[in-house]
Design goal:
Layout (H helix, E strand, L loop, with lengths): L1 H10 L5 E6 L9 H9 L8 E7 L7 H5 L3 E5 L2 H16 L4
Length: 97
Amino acid sequence: MITAKHALDATGLSRRHLLLVSDGENTDGYRPEDVAAAIAKRPETEKPSIYFVAFDIEARRFNGVRDAGGLVLPASNAKELNETLDTLIRGKILVEK
């Protein structure tokens, strides 16, 4: 999440989106809820929209990301994952002005 946030910042775009898919296995680095909370403290112009897909794990495990302002959605299998990503990309990210 930190690397993605830095890459977004480098684009210079005013509208930024951070889309993550996680199986809940944090193999390295900070916890997603801690990073989301740190991002939430940034000025409004530096905050990307955070979309977090909990893949094959209960979405409530990422309540900390939700509490920090991220949208957390579940996907329990490949079909649900594809549908959720399609909904996010077409319904949230690409339609934004």
